[in-house]
Amino acid sequence: MRLKTVRYSTATALVATLVLTVSGHAFAQSPGLPPVETQGDISFVSGGIGHDEAEALRHDESQWPLSMGFFGPTADYLADVHVRIADSKGNEVMHADSRGPYMLVKLPPGSYTVYARYRTDEQHRAVNVAGNGHERVSFRFNVQ
To answer: Could you say which residues form the signal peptide (predicted)?
Structure first.
C-alpha cells in the first residue's frame, strides 16, 4: 500500500511541475503579445497593429534572437510583408507573411539571409545570430 501512495505522490508532483512550467511559460509573454507560431524548430511572432500589441512586441524583442521591422517610404507601418529566411547553405528555414510591422524570430545561432517582399519590392539582409545576442533589421520599402 505504501508503494502505491509513493507512486501516486510522485505522479502528482510531476503533473504539478509540468502544469506550473507550462503556465509559467505562457505568463512570461507580455500581455497583448500575438500568439507564437512555429515552423519546425523555428518560433516566431508577428504583429504590431494597435498600440498594446506594438508595445508588447517592442517590450519582448530583446528576448528573441532576431527582430524585424517593416516600414513604407514615409515611415508608415506595413503588414502583409512576405518573409523568407534561409540558412548559410541556402536552405529555407522559415517563411511567413507578417501580420504587422514587427516580427520576432527564435533562430539557432548562425548566419542567415532574410528576404522580405512587399508588393513588388523585394529586399534581403544578411544577419548573424549569436548564441545569446540579438540582431535587429529594418526593411524600408519604396512602394505604397
So the answer is: 1-28
List the grid coordinates of 72.
513604407
Q: pLDDT digits over 38-56, tens only?
A: 999 999 999 999 999 999 9
Q: Are residues 94 and 108 in the same domain?
A: yes
The domain in which residue 73 lies consists of 32-140
CA distances from 27 to 4, 10, 112 (A): 34, 25, 30
Q: Which runs of E-coded beta strand occur in 48-144?
A: 66-71, 82-87, 92-97, 102-106, 110-118, 121-129, 135-140
d(CA 131, CA 133): 6
pTM for this one? 0.78
| One domain, residues 52 and 75 | yes
Domain count, the chain: 2
